[in-house]
Specification:
Helix content: 25-40%
Oligomer: single chain
CATH superfamily of the largest domain: DHBP synthase
Structural class: alpha/beta
Largest sheet: 9 strands, mixed
Number of strands: 15
Distance between the termini: 28 Å
Length: 315
Amino acid sequence: MRISIQEACQLLDNGDVVAVPTETVYGLAAKASDTNAIAKIFDLKKRPANNPLIVHLSDASQLNDYAKALPKDALKLCDTFWPGPLTLVLEIHLQSIPETARAGLPTVAFRAPQHPLAREIIDAIGPIVAPSANVSGRPSATLPEHVEDDFGKGFPVVDGGSCKTGVESTILLHTHSRWQIVRLGALPADAFTDTLGYTPTIAPTTQSDTIVCPGRLHRHYAPKALLHLHENAYDGSIPVVLGFDDRSYPGANAVLSLGNPQHPEQALARLYATLRQLDALGATDVWVDAKFPSEGLWKTLRERLSRASQAQHTP
């Protein structure tokens, strides 16, 4: 159900949950101070309680209401990348954010979205939490129709069209006097080099990690089909292919393209919608063309596909 900004603000003020567009993916939004609405998000998404939410702000000045202290270069990062697809994990005053939203942690992830409709909502009602508007583990929603696929056509959605970036924000955590990437996303590691004077390293993910931010769970972003990643030439063993333009997959029954193999931004923008198309096709197994670089935004694409391929098949 498509709703206006005014209707969305009224619903949020009344303790309801609505889907809102951001430049990355659609978010399942609730007021950041509303514990009952936050509980609704976890229930709707079937989200594990140990997976914290991102708080969305208008600008860096609002951090003063939450953060205990800002690490070195935090404001420089905000000045450079906000509004936009950068999230910072910061230590907070515990009473400022409900315990359920932060999964009992002393930290919270913050970002300022770029999408004008999301910003209009935040300006009207204050900060919101807004995890991706999909059932946990499924591909994130980049179109209103994706939200309705997961939550029904009666679910309230602010229609902002297709998400420009199409992949989640990059998340940074300050540890041992340096910033580290704890979730790959729309900004590659080298995007931060000029601002920080160094390139942040990427934190390894293990099942035993404390989850300090979204996207650290092993199973994520997955369609129902099993994805089989290959860096060699297509061998015809699986008739459904997830590939790229201008590449040949002789004998395939269906080829879904992520776009130009020279442009990772295009591949990321198409990724979740294409994974959802695989479900619409009824595919059970998919041959994935993984012959692409492993640096920059290609690293984000490889990570998303790898996580999706590791999820268990659920018929």
